[in-house]
Amino acid sequence: MSTKAEIYTLVTSILDGNEMETTLFSALLDISQALRENARNWVYLRKEDATGSVSPGNTYTTQHSLPTDFRKWYSRTPIVLVDSSGNVAARLSEVPIQEKETYKSDNKFYCDYANGKLYICGNYGQALTIKQYYQSKGTLVSADDSNEWIFPSEYHKILAFDVAVMYKLGVDYDIINNSQGEDRKSTRLNSSHTIQ
Predict the structure, then answer these.
(1) Of 79, 136, 75, which is closest to residue 110 (Cα–Cα)?
(2) Which of 2, 82, 97, 120 has CB atoms 3.0–4.6 Å from 156's, for a disulfide?
(3) In angstroms, what is the C-alpha Rg of the chain?
(4) C-alpha separations of 153 from 137, 148, 178, 195 in Å
(5) 10 Cβ partners below 8 Å, 6+ apart?
(6) Is the backbone of residue 174 left (phi > 0), alpha (psi -120 to 50) or beta?
(7) Between the CA of residue 110 and those of 97, 99, 186, what are the distances in Å?
(8) 191: phi then psi, degrees, rounded to nearest 5
(9) By the 8 A CB rule, do 14 and 161 touch?
(10) Closest CA to 120 of 55, 62, 73
C-alpha cells in the first residue's frame, strides 16, 4: 500500500529530488484523487446505505439524509424501498427538485445535494427501509500521512505521477517541463480506464 508519506517520497523522486511544499502537495493530491474517483462509476466505491426509513405519515417534503460519504448515484433506480421481510416495495428514479410537485404522488425521489437531503415521493401504507445505492467518496489520502487510497495498491502510484504532472505543467512550468508533462499526461489519460 502507498500512504500519503510514501506518495510524497515518490513525487520527490519523480521530480528529481525537488521537494514540493507540503500544502501544495496536499492540494494537488486532493485534485488527483477527485479526478480519478470521478472518472467513472468505480465498483470499488459503490456502497449501500440502509439507515433511513419511510412511514405512512411521510410526504414528499419529509427530509431524509444522504450518506455523509455520498458522491453520486450510479444507476437509474438507486433508491429501493423494502419491507421488513426484505421484499422490494418500490424502485425509485430521480426527478429534478423543481419537478417535485409534479411527481409528489409517484414512485420517485429528489435531492437537495447542497444540504445532503433526500426526499421520497409517493404514498406508502407501511414502514419501509430506504436502501440507497451510491458511489462514495474515498477517504482523502492527504488528510493524514498514514492514509491510503481505497483502490488496490498497484494503482496508488498513479496519484504520484498525476501530482508530478500537475506540478510540472502548472507551478514549475517551462518549455522543457511542458514537454515532459504532456508525455506523462497522455500516459495518465490512457491508463484512466484500467481500474474496475
Answers:
(1) 79
(2) 2
(3) 22
(4) 18, 9, 29, 11
(5) 2, 157, 160
(6) beta
(7) 5, 9, 38
(8) -100, 0
(9) yes
(10) 62
CA angle 172, 174, 175 (to 5 degrees): 150
Residue-level pLDDT, tens digit, the chain, 196 residues = 589 999 999 999 999 999 999 999 999 999 999 999 999 999 999 999 999 999 999 999 999 999 999 999 999 999 999 999 999 999 999 999 999 999 999 999 999 999 999 999 999 999 999 999 999 999 999 999 999 999 999 999 999 999 999 998 877 555 555 555 565 555 555 555 444 4
Report the predicted TM-score, pTM, of the whole model to 2 decimal places: 0.81
Largest CA distance in the chain: 68
pLDDT of res. 170 = 78
Question: Are the C-beta atoms of residues 7 and 159 closer than 8 Å to each other?
Answer: yes
Tell me the C-alpha distance between 92 and 22, whole Å: 44
Which residue type is seen at 71?
A: R
**The dihedral formed by the CA atoms of 82, 109, 118 and 32, expressed in degrees to the nearest 10:** 100
